[in-house]
Amino acid sequence: MKTYNICLLPGDGIGPEIIAEGVKVLDAVGRKYDVAFNYTEALLGGIAIDETGTALPQETLDVAKASDAVLLAAVGGPKWDTTDPNQPRPEQGLLGIRKELGLYTNLRPVAIFNALASASTLKPEIIDGVDLMIVRELTGGLYFGMRERFYDEEGAGVNGANGQRAYDTLEYREYEIDRIARQAFEAARKRRGKVTSVDKANVLETSRLWREIVHAIHDAEYPDVELEDLLVDNTAMQLINRPADFDVVVTENMFGDILSDEAAQITGSLGMLASASLGDGVALYEPSHGSAPDIAGLGVANPLAQILSVEMMLRYSFDMGAAADDIHRAVTAVLDEGWRTGDIKGPDTPADKVVGTVKMGDLVCERI
Ligand code: NAD
Ligand code: IPM
Ligand code: MN
């Protein structure tokens, strides 16, 4: 029997609730295809800070590196929110594991499930046919640049003698842009053949370098792909103005973070947006949303972004396309039958069709 070792990182907030549903779906797939998934759970984020003092313990990194794939839920929460740069934060664990595993490509597919058309805040005719893929650079830019907070000897502070200063730096190297651009063009070739490269080249030097390199690669190696440049502020507007026009959207780390939450809302809820983080070694799969502290522990979180991340794991890490299709079909069927979690229910959803996290996971498994 084929065996895969999966590192599970439940993290914080709704994390443990939704990852349990992801595992349930994996097990259902394993039974159907006679594949064994072995799980090793490890600590990441706030729970890791509580138990070990650091958001990314070495042991977690070791388990992740030794596995065939990593399934992450979400990290963070008010308990660990601090503005003190000397205190650990859960998010450092997430950034750390992305960097350590070299996960420079983050794929965030934004596609409409027809049954959810009414759950979107946009008009049905605007979201009809939306099927886009955000290709977010994940290990560079502002998230990983030089940063500092210090007391400025020269400036007067608000409340007295010396004022504080802080900076974050946005830096990209040519090879970082080169490799993410290739990922975008390759993705476009398997889709509708169009790439929108998002930058702020009217202001930022990194964006000017970005644009030059994206075009050089395009002209030399991917002339068959249609390429357009779009400034990030305009993109934010066009995404809700004409979302169906986009195919592949490639952009730097922070622009991609912001635009993907915006794009998620087109599909009805952030609770629907899966993601795959890929590099040259072991890959990591996680919902695009966070730990949703406002609903943690209530059993009402939508597990579908996690389950759709499992679909991506089967497709990209295990070459189990048929099983991945099964998951997608099962999710589509459950939604077509009218089942909803709270975040995707509409004004006309009958109360007996609104289910919690566990029930939603069960419904998907039954249809695999
Ligand atoms: P969030 O994504 O956790 O929540 C935003 C809103 O969406 C909330 O109202 C929440 O209830 C809702 N939501 C999110 N996922 C949902 C789901 N599966 N089902 C139903 N509703 C869902 O963003 P936030 O509140 O800004 O951040 C909370 C914490 O999560 C912060 O500590 C943040 O740093 C962290 N975070 C972690 C990740 C990650 O681990 N990948 C991603 C984003 C945010
Ligand atoms: C995401 C999250 C993370 C990010 C945070 C929690 C560090 O918002 O995965 O989108 O900004 O990358
Ligand atoms: Mn985000």
TrEMBL record:
Pathway in which the depicted protein is active: Amino-acid biosynthesis; L-leucine biosynthesis; L-leucine from 3-methyl-2-oxobutanoate: step 3/4
Signal peptide as annotated in the record: none
Site, as annotated: Important for catalysis: 143, 200
Keywords tagged on the record: Amino-acid biosynthesis, Branched-chain amino acid biosynthesis, Cytoplasm, Leucine biosynthesis, Magnesium, Manganese, Metal-binding, NAD, Oxidoreductase
UniProt cross-references to Gene3D superfamilies, sorted A to Z: Isopropylmalate Dehydrogenase (3.40.718.10)
Subcellular location: Cytoplasm
Family annotation (InterPro entries): IsoCit/isopropylmalate_DH_CS (IPR019818), IsoPropMal-DH-like_dom (IPR024084), Isopropylmalate_DH (IPR004429)
GO biological process, one term: L-leucine biosynthetic process
Record's keyword annotation contains Ribonucleoprotein: no
Sequence ranges assigned to domain Isopropylmalate dehydrogenase-like in this UniProt record: 5-364
Entry's Gene Ontology molecular function annotations: 3-isopropylmalate dehydrogenase activity; magnesium ion binding; NAD binding
UniProt: Mg(2+) binding residues: 233, 257, 261
EC number: 1.1.1.85
Protein name: 3-isopropylmalate dehydrogenase
